[in-house]
Design goal:
Blueprint (H helix, E strand, L loop, with lengths): L7 E10 L2 E6 L12 E2 L2 E3 L6 H13 L9 E10 L2 E9 L2 H6 L8 E6 H6 L5 H11 L3
Parallel strand pairs: 1-6
Antiparallel strand pairs: 1-2, 1-4, 2-3, 2-7, 5-6
Length: 140
């Protein structure tokens, strides 16, 4: 799917390390969407950046991890985000060393590797991201 510059909102990453997923717990601030919920790294588009550039910038800001665009596998998945808008989702495998070096940036309360099965069943995971992970990783 080609990114419509007026209608795509942001990009997220499904980052696996073996059977675990790198996730962050959102700040517990009542004025934000999904306060305190488990989230995927990524976020909103800035300016005219591409979906890949958005995902990688957000990843660096939120975790300190810097991945080459070639590390993103499976291509972009453009999925409904809000009526008339889409979000782009990418997948990458990270190493144990990369996972250990990840650090929270200015946002979020906790960063950790969570078993994929735990995330897709977790009552405090952002519901639509549970579905994205299920689809992208082929888990139930």
């Amino acid at each position: 799917m080609t990114a419509d510059p007026l209608h795509w909102r942001g990009a997220k990453l499904v980052l696996t390390c073996g059977d675990r997923l790198l996730v962050m717990r959102r700040d517990d601030i009542p004025t934000i969407n999904w306060p305190g919920a488990w989230d995927l790294p990524g976020g909103g588009r800035e300016g005219d950046e591409t979906p890949v550039a958005c995902a990688l910038r957000e990843l660096a800001e939120e975790t300190g991890l810097r991945l080459a665009p070639s590390r993103l596998s499976g291509g972009a998945r453009a999925l409904p985000h809000k009526p008339g808008r889409v979000g782009f989702y990418f997948r990458a495998e990270i190493t144990e060393a990369e996972a250990a070096s990840a650090r929270l940036g200015d946002e979020g309360a906790e960063l950790r590797l969570m078993p994929v099965a735990e995330f897709v069943a977790h009552p405090r995971a952002v519901p639509h991201f549970r579905d994205v992970v299920r689809e992208m990783l082929g888990v139930s």
